[in-house]
Design a protein that fits this description.
The complex is a heterodimer of chains A (about 300) and B (about 350).
Chain A: E1 13-14, E2 20-21, H1 25-35, H2 37-64, H3 95-131, H4 133-148, H5 151-162, H6 166-192, H7 196-203, H8 208-245, H9 256-265, H10 272-299
Antiparallel strand pairs in A: 1-2
Helix pairs in contact in A: 1-10, 2-3, 2-10, 3-4, 3-6, 3-8, 3-9, 3-10, 4-6, 5-6, 6-8, 7-8, 8-9, 8-10, 9-10
Chain B: E1 10-23, E2 35-48, E3 52-56, H1 63-70, E4 78-83, E5 86-87, E6 92-95, E7 98-101, H2 103-107, E8 112-115, H3 129-139, H4 145-158, H5 175-187, E9 193-197, H6 205-222, E10 225-230, H7 233-236, E11 242-247, E12 250-256, H8 257-262, H9 267-274, H10 281-286, E13 327-330, E14 333-335
Parallel strand pairs in B: 3-10, 3-11, 8-9, 9-10
Antiparallel strand pairs in B: 1-2, 1-4, 4-5, 6-7, 11-12, 12-14, 13-14
Helix pairs in contact in B: 3-4, 5-6
Classes of the chains: A mainly alpha (about 300), B alpha/beta (about 350).
The structure holds adenosine-5'-triphosphate and magnesium ion (MG).
Adenosine-5'-triphosphate (ATP) binds near residues 37, 57, 59 and 60 of chain B.
């Protein structure tokens, strides 16, 4: 047989420059994700909620003069009506605007904190695992110790030391929340670095830094994205909890957590003050979790249970 | 088959090479390095320029480890590896508690390459063919931009692949095509010595011949020196000039390929030959078979004396105590067995 005779290849799609277009594992995953109805529906819900939270308060302020923070004590709490679809709270503030403004804060804190966690965790885990040996042991002991400490306790200490501001809030949450990502990434890299393509890279003279950033980290992105999508809702919950403790977003600015807290105090009398923020929070968390599951299945079809 | 002039200066000399791996024993945090695997133990051979040496043995006998230690992908515990006159086993330095390459060893990556067994694990699934083949070129600053792409497309043509495929990902190819990509990657830097570690054993039988032929063809065209690793003789007999048979980290017999096939002297080689069917049915029927019994001993606690004595049908008392050394019995034919004069 002639050595230069290629085997029959899979059907090739040509692109304009005459090269054959490839489809990456990311593109395959995207195709699978789009077939998952639950995930698509969740994505749409998140997009709609996100847009509403992002634009809603401004639009309502311009169009109808709704202000999430301005009080009208004389007006007081009113049940849902056409003018105030979610009703008003104890101080006479429109609840719809407050829920949207609160959602903005919660989403921003959740996403930014999860991003920080993913970034720190990925680099930490990959470097630790690739370095191996004593370095790895030391770095992972640090993670173990942080893990053993009560998580909320750390956040509370950080918030207390750093002072209360929105930026510091998600820095504090992210700075503590990377532990899971670090462990996930380290586990991945442990098995990845034994694979032949890493040995091949070494044999080709690739530097350690390039091996970590070009070979190892791109191959952990799947689990990192999954961890990220599932970290967002947990960060949102934690922000809610902090607000509940009075350590989160400061009044009069709302967050979903503080709204729920206020609502819980008066739910027997003014039911709408709990039901609407709680409902939005629940829908958001469900959608984020379904999307996270969908992303996981799409990135690794074998992981589907 | 290339006929190698007997006097050609060897490109590679391996002398008394040893590789050991620590095996952590049970017993908690601080109990480390109490045992070790002697994965490779006192291996010596040389390979002439343009020659192909077959390295054969059962799974776990240390073939891959030998190949990696030769290329300095693993640091040998002992012994010498002289490549083109350079003692490359010395080109290591300690940095932060571990051994790293000196820069001259990194430069030698251009001349020392490897082809891997598993065409799936050896290509990064997140990289396009272009990125995979660009990596070695980028590492050494060879060609750039459109020139680099041309280089990559040439490489693909060299291994018999469609050069338009550079945008595609490894998972879009069959095993044989992936192996071709792996070969193209090994060729990218223009190496002199390639260790091919079981390059066909993971492939369909129908594809194996294609890859062997490709390697044989490239060897002629590019003047490559090959160490071709396989676990059975059938795979290496046609491509190798000489064959070395390994058992438990040692070479037990080494001779020109035809001599190993026709006149195997070590009982272990004879057993391996028995496993290869002969083309002539009359000879196939009449020949004596040596059947291996028993398990391969663990390299953590190898047997005393001759490492093969636990499974040898011809063993004698002295085989239990004395380690046989590799001796030349006829020019170019070396055997490590007490029963061979
Ligand atoms: N990184 C490692 N750590 C510990 N032990 C190892 C390591 N690599 C190899 N070994 C051991 O060294 C011995 C030789 O392994 P090696 O992979 O070289 O065998 P091989 O002949 O290539 O086998 P195969 O045909 O399965 O590829 C085996 O006992 C193996 O368990
Ligand atoms: Mg092997």
């Amino acid at each position: 047989m002639n050595a230069s005779q290629p085997e029959p290849a899979a059907p090739m799609r040509s692109s304009p420059d005459g090269l054959v277009a490839g489809s990456s594992l990311w593109q395959d995953a995207w195709r699978r994700l789009r077939k998952n109805k639950m995930a698509v529906a969740s994505g749409v819900v998140i997009a709609v909620l996100g847009l509403a939270c992002l634009l809603g308060p401004t639009l309502l302020a311009v169009a109808g003069g709704y202000d999430p923070d301005a009080q009208d004590l004389a007006y007081g709490p009113q049940p849902p009506s056409w003018q105030h679809p979610f009703g008003t709270d104890f101080y006479g503030r429109d609840l719809l605007v407050r829920v949207l403004a609160g959602g903005q804060v919660s989403l921003a804190v959740g996403i930014l904190a999860a991003l920080i966690a993913a970034l720190i965790g990925t680099i930490y885990g990959a470097v630790s695992s690739y370095a191996g040996g004593l370095v790895d042991s030391l770095l992972m002991r640090v993670v173990d110790i942080l893990y053993a400490l009560p998580y909320m306790f750390l956040v509370i200490i950080l918030v207390t030391i750093l002072g209360q501001s929105l930026v510091l809030l998600f820095v504090a949450l992210g700075a503590v929340g990377w532990l899971l990502t670090a462990r996930v990434v380290r586990g991945q890299v442990m098995s990845l670095k034994e694979q032949d393509f890493v040995l091949a890279a070494r044999s080709l003279g690739t530097s350690g830094r390039d091996i970590v950033f070009r070979h190892l980290i791109p191959n952990t992105l799947g689990p990192v994205i999954v961890t990220f999508t599932l970290t967002v809702p947990s960060m949102i919950l934690q922000e809610a909890f902090l607000s509940f403790l009075g350590l989160g977003v400061q009044p009069p600015h709302p967050s979903l957590g503080s709204l729920i807290n206020d609502g819980a105090n008066q739910m027997l009398v003014f039911w709408w003050t709990l039901v609407f923020p709680g409902g939005v929070m629940a829908v958001l968390l469900f959608a984020l979790n379904f999307l996270g599951d969908g992303v996981r299945d799409a990135l690794d079809p074998r992981m589907r249970t | 088959m290339t006929v190698v002039p007997a006097k050609a200066a060897p490109l590679l000399i391996v002398d008394d090479l040893a590789v050991r791996f620590p095996v952590p024993r049970a017993g908690g945090w601080l109990a480390q390095r109490q045992g070790e695997v002697r994965a490779v133990d006192g291996v010596s051979f040389s390979v002439a320029k343009g020659e192909t040496l077959g390295l054969v043995g059962e799974s776990g006998c240390g073939k891959s480890t030998t190949g990696r230690a030769v290329l300095q992908l693993l640091r040998p515990a002992a012994g010498k590896v002289i490549f083109d006159g350079e003692p490359i086993h010395e080109y290591w330095r300690r940095q932060g508690g571990r051994w790293v390459w000196e820069s001259r060893l990194r430069d030698l990556r251009k001349r020392l390459q490897m082809i891997f067994q598993d065409p799936f694990a050896s290509l990064n699934p997140r990289m396009t063919v272009e990125a995979i083949l660009a990596e070695p070129l980028r590492n050494f600053g060879i060609a750039a931009g459109s020139q680099r792409r041309e280089r990559i497309q040439q490489l693909l043509q060299t291994v018999g692949m469609d050069p338009r495929a550079i945008r595609r990902y490894p998972h879009e190819f069959s095993g044989g095509q992936r192996q071709r990509i792996g070969i193209a990657r090994a060729l990218a830097l223009g190496p002199d010595l390639i260790v091919a570690d079981e390059p066909i054993s993971a492939l369909d039988v129908s594809i194996q011949a294609q890859i062997i032929n490709l390697l044989a063809d490239l060897r002629e065209r590019l003047g490559l020196t090959l160490i071709f690793i396989a676990h059975d003789l059938a795979a290496v007999r046609h491509i190798s000039d000489r064959i070395a048979v390994m058992y438990l980290g040692r070479i037990v017999e080494m001779a020109p390929a035809q001599t190993i096939i026709d006149q195997p002297r070590h009982p272990y080689t004879q057993a391996l030959i028995s496993a290869v069917p002969l083309p002539d049915p009359a000879r196939e029927r009449s020949r004596q078979r040596t059947i291996l019994t028993g398990e391969l001993p663990s390299p953590v606690s190898p047997p005393s004396g001759c490492p093969f004595h636990t499974r040898c049908p011809l063993r004698e008392e002295r085989c239990r105590h004395d380690v046989p050394v590799l001796q030349q019995i006829t020019p170019g034919h070396q055997v490590a067995c007490h029963l061979v004069e």
